[in-house]
Design goal:
The structure is a single chain. By secondary structure, the protein is of the alpha+beta class. It is built from two helices and nine strands, in the order αβαββββββββ. It has helices at residues 10-27, 41-49; strands spanning 35-36, 54-55, 61-67, 76-82, 85-93, 102-105, 108-115, 118-124, 135-136. A hairpin with an 8-residue loop joins strand 3 and strand 4 (76-82). It is globular. The chain starts with 9 loop residues before the first helix and ends with a strand.
């Protein structure tokens, strides 16, 4: 999975995630240039951070694969569709995560949920978070 160099402040990191979301939407969301369908979120998180999160199965949610477009920085990125609407999740250890709870970037919203040692960010155009409520810590 490609990673962009980490830049400095929280605004740069969150801005890169918004750009990654927009890139994935423009590319078609499930195309090989930005989506690796063979990646397992808990496994990738464990490899990157020695801790994991997963997304509970839910009607209307399709996990497409890992974001591999190069704009995620050090985060693990996941592309998903919620009732056909594109959603990106980005995961980082809490100590390296931007200090963002919720913010808007034009029509794109960024929301945060902390689980254990990890912070999970949902990036989408949806009025309410769709994947964050489904994120959980799997048994190690």
């Amino acid at each position: 999975m490609a990673a962009a160099p980490t830049g400095g402040n929280d605004a740069n990191v969150v801005g890169a995630w918004v750009e990654a979301f927009q890139h994935a939407v423009a590319a078609g969301f499930e195309v090989p240039s930005c989506c690796d369908p063979g990646t397992d979120l808990p496994t990738h998180c464990r490899e990157a951070f020695a801790s994991a999160v997963d997304v509970a199965a839910s009607g209307g949610v399709k996990l497409c694969g890992a974001y591999c477009g190069g704009l995620a920085g050090d985060a693990v990125g996941l592309l998903a569709l919620s009732d056909g609407d594109p959603v990106c999740l980005f995961v980082l250890p809490k100590g390296r995560a931007p200090a963002v709870g919720q913010e808007r970037h034009g029509d794109v919203r960024v929301r945060r949920r902390d689980l254990g040692r990890l912070a999970v960010f949902e990036v989408s155009r949806l009025a309410d978070p769709h994947l964050l409520p489904l994120v959980f810590e799997p048994e190690q």
